[in-house]
Specification:
homodimer; Asparaginase (chains A, B); about 325 residues; Asparaginase_II (chains A, B); about 20% strand; two-stranded antiparallel ribbon; alpha+beta
Amino acid sequence: MDANPVLAETIRGNWVENRHRGAFAVIDADGTIIASAGDIERAIFPRSAIKSMQALPIFARHADEKFHHTPEELALACASHHGEDVHVTKVAHFLDRMGLSVNDLECGAHVPTNPAAREAMRAAGGEPSALHNNCSGKHSGMLSVALAMGIPTAGYVGREHEVQKQVRAAVEAVIGEPLSEGKCGTDGCSIPTYAAPLRAFAFGFARMASGKGLTPEFALAAQRLFDAATSNPLLVAGTGHADTLIMEAFKGRVMQKIGAEAVQCGAIRNKGWGYALKCDDGNIAASQAMLAKVLLEIADPDDAQRKLLEGYAHQTIKSVRGAEVGELRAV
Amino acid sequence: MDANPVLAETIRGNWVENRHRGAFAVIDADGTIIASAGDIERAIFPRSAIKSMQALPIFARHADEKFHHTPEELALACASHHGEDVHVTKVAHFLDRMGLSVNDLECGAHVPTNPAAREAMRAAGGEPSALHNNCSGKHSGMLSVALAMGIPTAGYVGREHEVQKQVRAAVEAVIGEPLSEGKCGTDGCSIPTYAAPLRAFAFGFARMASGKGLTPEFALAAQRLFDAATSNPLLVAGTGHADTLIMEAFKGRVMQKIGAEAVQCGAIRNKGWGYALKCDDGNIAASQAMLAKVLLEIADPDDAQRKLLEGYAHQTIKSVRGAEVGELRAV
């Protein structure tokens, strides 16, 4: 198997220290490749980068008609949130509104992703609950689907549960590829994740951004989800995170979502282009450098947006004493 | 530039998620390559993996005659210690014995690497000092060199300070390659780090293990340093760390040292073989999987040693709820 190209590297002093390989595709809804690097047909696990696709059954199964999800709740359904108070409070309220609680979440508990929130919890002697899990919003959305379908919520994370079948069908419909038990794993939050070609995820985001090739129902659902996420970027990630800052800076024009192990997916909404990127070795910071370079080239950034992206494309490495000793940079 | 081979990968469910490339060399003191993979002539930053080489001026400049370093102090000079009480106490005593203190260390302060030590410090409301820096033992050794040379210690981390010139000369003598300002950076602890071919570091460890090709003075110094490190594996890293566990398990037969950004160097002492390994992307866990596979193949492990190494060659990946969902494995 050929190696993907080096798309990011770290420099220490005047010599390369680390190399990060990867692939990306930028595609329109007709399947035309706008830009790409590496093997875009290799199947990757999209992980949390496609939470907006996984949220489509909220509309397909009419959970939205039953619960009238707010834009904030839809944003949380698309989120890998950082467990800050704002996230935890809103997810708890979302569940409460459906007559559910933290006890119905099957994602497991982990400490908040946000360092300040983690520190505050520690200082208060608190313990994390499933509400703090970065996926608790997505899980709440999945629970709303189960309730709308009138089926038991217990076991909703299982591959054979009707909710996950609905999620799988929605993703297949959007990316235009069958998903297979032969390329399947379990995500950190216990739901199934299916690998598919990198190209297909970019294509799916282009279709969600443009509505082209989707049923009118899915096209509208995709627009509502992208509107919700890009209008509430703090809820989709957290304070200071790249996804939040990028979506804030692009004021609705860019949908951006990270996935575990260095996946980056999103859309340039005004152009109807979708993109998908994976750093082969799972390094998040390197994938953000790669993403920044792609967005610099395809997203027509203004000065402020460019400045933000340049900060990810060139990340300073410091010594313990704080001296600049190198950088992680996109190449 | 050709890509190094994939030497480790992560599997999620039944599909590959991440790929880690790298190179390694196992060499004897005559320069014969016992085993290798990838581009072993590519210059890499050895970082902390060659602290035992960097400690040689303690002997070359007769600091050992002045201060009579204990084996524990020599082990700390070769260490990336984890900031546990045992490390901090012994480094403080080492400095005190030389009429120095934490204020003379120029490595900077960071929280203990060991999670329990970090937690205890946090619970006690303590602040880390330079003693907790994983390099404080190496720095103390370097300070001993400055004192033995009768020169000011201030600025001993600088590239032009006589201590660092001595360190550079010792490394050059052992690896048999000139080091260059053209391939130089600053380590996290503020001292210079020079890149050189991966092969040369393996060769240097073979020469230190066997004494072959070294001056009698360096041969003896290398033996004392390896004896000290392998007799005090807890001081060289910390509780539960691979380096500590591997050196404990091999009872003096294997010298093993990690370096930042996924470098692994060491020696099979009874065979006189040195090895050096670098994971291209800087992933520590992947480099430990690669290292484990190399040691399984070349170090003649007994059953207990094999079991330990297999645990690094196959590292379980769990979901937030603790279910096994994949593994990081050497390939």
